[in-house]
Design a protein that fits this description.
With 91 residues, the chain is an alpha+beta fold. It has 2 helices and 5 strands, in the order E-H-E-E-E-H-E.
Length: 91
Amino acid sequence: MESGLREIIYLSLGSNLGDREANLESVFEELPPAIEVIMRSSIYQTEPWGFEDQPEFLNMVAQGKILNFSKLIIYQYLSTQPLTELLLLWN
């Protein structure tokens, strides 16, 4: 992995279609090399809210480190991934 200044990020992951657990795991297999996952939460099942006529979700959070200059590129990449809603939050 490249050296350089890194910032902490959090990935909020959720899936409610198909093999929900496999969908969550596939995110970690597909992450670009600029993201280093440090910790992962347990997986929790939650009821949908808002549009409630849909299957229950599996959700989890991961903490990682990312190269500063990579944030926008990584966000654009993650926001195009199917079956999983991903949100990057960084401090």
